[in-house]
Amino acid sequence: MGTAGPLRASRDRTGRRQRFGPYDGCRPEDPGQGSAAGPVLHRHASRPEREGARAQADVVVSRDSRRISRLLRHTAGERGLTMSADGWSAIADVLAVLELTRSKLDAAVRDNDKQRLQVDGERIRACQGHSRAGMPVTREALENSWERVYPDDLLWHGTNRQALPAIQREGLKPGRRTHVHLAPSSDSQVGRRTSVEVLLGVDPRNLAVYRAPNGVLLPREVPPDAIVRVDAVH
């Protein structure tokens, strides 16, 4: 905005003189002064527009978070990303492989509610959920980087009804992952899938359990006799 003009005066309805502040050419009673184009009207986004923009930003953050997590959990080996045995990679290398900007990576770590990722200085890793095949990680190195815990209360695992017969025979196996994922409470959302139909209560007292930075609890497997409760999800 340019330098303010001189003070202007006018008269009110009683005829008394009133003084205004410095005239800037944008007063409604004197349009067009101070600028050949007249006063500029600024349009503010409506509430639906603001909410739509926020929703779109959330979609972008979620998409970027999934891309980074997939690389750090499952595809680092095949894509040539250098990674330590406990899952750490240089942020610069991740950005190069994914052709991603640092600001988008920071937003994916900071704003995503899944808490998938952990950053330490200039390195990054997935908190847990790594594949065993084709990845540089080892169970031993991951466990050494997590916290060993000794819970007394039941831990919880979500699954679907179709999987129950096999679980009752064989217990919980990690499948292609390094560890079985358990939650500290039945209402925990960390690591929980939307397709969960049944919650299994696990007695952890005879299990070696580790806690990842995002709170997921991780034994290597759970035998059938440690599953002591089955609750349907309503």
Describe this structure in words.
The chain is α+β, with helices and mostly antiparallel strands. It has two domains: 87 residues, Arc Repressor Mutant, subunit A (Orthogonal Bundle), CATH 1.10.10.970; 86 residues, ADP-ribosylation fold (Alpha-Beta Barrel), CATH 3.20.170.30. 26% of the residues lie in helices and 19% in strands. The strands form four sheets. Strands 3-5-4 form a three-stranded antiparallel beta sheet. Strands 6-9-10 form a three-stranded antiparallel beta sheet. The chain has a three-stranded antiparallel beta sheet with strand order 7-8-11, with no helix packed on it. Helix 1 packs across helix 3. The longest helix is centred in the N-terminal third of the chain and has 29 residues. It is globular and about 60 Å long. The termini are far apart.
Q: In a nutshell, what does this entry contain?
A:
The chain is an alpha+beta fold and 234 residues long. Helices cover 26% and strands 19% of the residues.
Any chance you could write out the topology, listing elements then pairs?
Layout: E1 7-11, E2 17-22, H1 47-75, E3 89-90, H2 91-98, H3 102-111, E4 117-120, E5 123-126, H4 139-145, E6 147-149, E7 155-159, H5 164-170, E8 198-202, E9 209-211, E10 217-218, E11 227-232
Antiparallel strand pairs: 1-2, 3-5, 4-5, 6-9, 7-8, 8-11, 9-10
**Structure annotation, total helices:** 5
Largest beta sheet: what is the strand line-up?
A: 3-5-4
Shape descriptor reads globular
- CATH hierarchy class name of the largest domain: Mainly Alpha
Mean pLDDT: 83
Which structural class matches the secondary elements? alpha+beta
**CATH homologous superfamily title of the largest domain:** RNA 2'-phosphotransferase, Tpt1/KptA family, N-terminal domain
* Proportion of beta-strand residues: 15-25%
Terminal-residue CA separation: 61 Å
| Domains, number | 2
User: CATH topology of the largest domain, anyone?
Assistant: Arc Repressor Mutant, subunit A
Which value, in Å, is the CA radius of gyration? 29 Å
